[in-house]
């Protein structure tokens, strides 16, 4: 069976980038405990001070989708949403 991978670029005001990185790093720490998550990496975009890149590798799309249902993850999403720009 093939794995499920995602690469996302999230945008925020440059003043909020470290806050966003902190939130996403907390998520990465949570993902370490999930059996279906093989990789969750957060990094600064070297060319854009308003962007953060997240790379994820999951056992399956269902494993990824299930992670989004966890209360702790939903809480972090709620913290990140107000500071995100764009879609």
Quick overview:
The protein is an alpha+beta fold and 87 residues long.
Tell the overall outline: globular
**Mean pLDDT value:** 95
| Residue share in helix | 25-40%
Q: Main sheet: which strands, in order across?
A: 2-3-1-4
Topology pattern, helix = H, strand = E: EHEEHHE
Rg on CA atoms, Å: 13 Å
Structural class: alpha+beta
Number of strands: 4
Head-to-tail CA distance between termini: 31 Å
* Unreliable spans: none
> Sheet bearing the most strands, described?
4 strands, antiparallel
Structure description:
The chain is of the alpha+beta class and 87 residues long. It is built from three helices and four strands; from the N terminus they run βαββααβ. It has a four-stranded antiparallel β-sheet with strand order 2-3-1-4. α1 runs antiparallel to α3. The protein is globular and about 40 Å long. The protein starts with a strand and ends with a strand. 15% of the residues are buried. The mean pLDDT is 95.
Features:
87 residues, alpha+beta, four-stranded antiparallel beta sheet, 3 helices, 4 strands, 31% strand
SSE topology:
Layout (H helix, E strand, L loop, with lengths): L3 E9 L4 H15 L5 E8 L6 E8 L2 H7 L3 H10 L3 E2 L2
Antiparallel strand pairs: 1-3, 1-4, 2-3
Helix pairs in contact: 1-3
